[in-house]
């Protein structure tokens, strides 16, 4: 089974193209593995287990998770994203740019405008190729969800948006925002001193978040510039987080700290976020392919990843 590794600002994923030979219009989940060997029947793999195995930087490929590109009945393709711990995320802002790049660079779509089905809805991408290869993409990320019950977050009365609330038992003051996946945004003065490694896991697992949460530590440089570090649900501190940058931008505007268009400076680089007047969030950033390879069948079998 062939894989590709791509990253957006150092937030990297191992991609499996399961569109089969039918390309984007193929039907049903999974398809033939590409390449001459007998393909591993996709139903034979435990995706959560595979995500943990490939993400391991020692015994695996090394990534923040696994992304499957699957046929879709309603879009050019369907994306499933699994974090490094095997949990499935609803959306991935950096990862979806990699899906667009794989589709376009391999000639599986011809248009620069592609639609990808995710658990957070069908999202539209505009791809920016140079010499036939995508370098950047703009993603229509949809509307932020602020109603705590839908984030989900057990905060406030569950309906009205909650801004800057102290979590029970913690010093942390968070603004919860969902971009289809949950985020707890904290504003800090000095990012270098932000307690990412101590507070990240504690807040990720805080009882206020029944599905856990991603945690963003944000310093506001000016009304158009944020600086951020992120502790990702299921992956730990990563170099960048697309949905997290969007959540940070929304929280910064809601709390009067920033305008509707910001550059978000992350350890891995800069993402541009705009929250337009019709309540839609746009994310733009680079995407790069690192390598392609083939998962070794013995490696898969030794990890119990192939059902007999
Ligand atoms: N850890 C996230 C998924 C990856 C999101 C992040 N890599 C992004 O670019 O949006 C979650 O469980 O919701």
Overview of the structural elements:
- The chain folds into 2 domains: 2-140 and 288-302, Diaminopimelate Epimerase, Chain A, domain 1, CATH 3.10.310; 148-279, Diaminopimelate Epimerase, Chain A, domain 1 (Roll), CATH 3.10.310.
- The protein is of the alpha+beta class and 308 residues long.
- The protein has helices spanning 47-55, 93-105, 196-204, 242-254, 297-302; strands at residues 2-8, 11-17, 65-70, 77-83, 88-89, 113-118, 121-130, 133-142, 165-166, 173-178, 182-187, 214-222, 225-232, 236-238, 261-266, 269-275, 281-286, 288-294.
- It has 5 helices and 18 strands.
- The longest helix is centred in the first third of the chain and has 13 residues, at 93-105.
- The protein has an 18-stranded mixed beta sheet that branches.
- 2,6-diaminopimelic acid (API) is lined by residues 11, 81, 83, 89, 92-95, 181, 214, 232-235, 241-243.
Q: What is the CATH class of the largest domain?
A: Alpha Beta
Rg of Cα set: 19 Å
The count of β-strands is 18
**SS-based class:** alpha+beta
CATH architecture of the largest domain, by name, is Roll
The description of the largest β-sheet is: 18 strands, mixed
What share of the residues does DSSP label as strand, in percent?
35-45%
Which fold does the CATH topology of the largest domain refer to?
Answer: Diaminopimelate Epimerase, Chain A, domain 1
- CATH superfamily label of the largest domain: Diaminopimelate Epimerase, Chain A, domain 1
pLDDT averaged residue by residue: 93
Can you list the ligands bound to this structure? 2,6-diaminopimelic acid
Order of helices and strands: EEHEEEHEEEEEEHEEEHEEEEH
Poorly predicted residue ranges = 25-38
Helix count from the secondary structure assignment: 5
Distance between the termini: 17 Å
């Amino acid at each position: 089974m062939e894989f590709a590794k791509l990253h957006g600002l150092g937030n990297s994923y191992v991609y499996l193209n399961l569109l089969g030979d039918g390309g984007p219009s193929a039907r049903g989940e999974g398809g033939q593995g590409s390449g001459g060997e007998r393909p591993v029947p996709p139903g034979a793999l435990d995706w959560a287990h595979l995500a943990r195995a490939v993400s391991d930087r020692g015994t695996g490929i090394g990534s923040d998770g696994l992304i499957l590109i699957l046929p879709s009945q309603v879009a050019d393709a369907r994306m499933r994203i699994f974090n490094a711990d095997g949990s499935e995320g609803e959306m991935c802002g950096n990862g979806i740019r990699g899906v667009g790049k794989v589709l376009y660079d391999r000639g599986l779509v011809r248009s620069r405008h592609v639609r990808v089905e995710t658990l957070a809805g069908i999202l539209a991408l505009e791809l920016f190729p140079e010499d036939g290869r995508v370098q950047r993409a703009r993603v229509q990320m949809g509307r932020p969800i602020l109603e705590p019950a839908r984030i989900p977050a057990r905060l406030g009365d569950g309906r009205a948006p909650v801004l800057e609330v102290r979590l029970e038992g913690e010093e942390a003051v968070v603004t919860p925002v969902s971009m289809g996946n949950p985020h707890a945004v904290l504003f800090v003065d000095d990012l270098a001193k932000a307690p990412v490694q101590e507070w990240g896991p504690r807040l990720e697992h805080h009882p206020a978040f029944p599905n856990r949460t991603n945690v963003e530590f944000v310093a506001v440089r000016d009304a158009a510039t944020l600086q951020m570090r992120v502790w990702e649900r299921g992956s730990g501190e990563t170099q960048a987080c697309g949905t997290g940058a969007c959540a940070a931008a929304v929280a910064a505007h809601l709390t009067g700290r920033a305008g509707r268009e910001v550059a978000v400076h992350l350890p891995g680089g800069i993402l541009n976020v705009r929250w337009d007047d019709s309540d839609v969030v746009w994310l733009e950033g680079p995407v790069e392919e690192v390598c392609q390879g083939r998962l070794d069948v013995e490696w898969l079998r030794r990890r119990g990843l192939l059902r007999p």
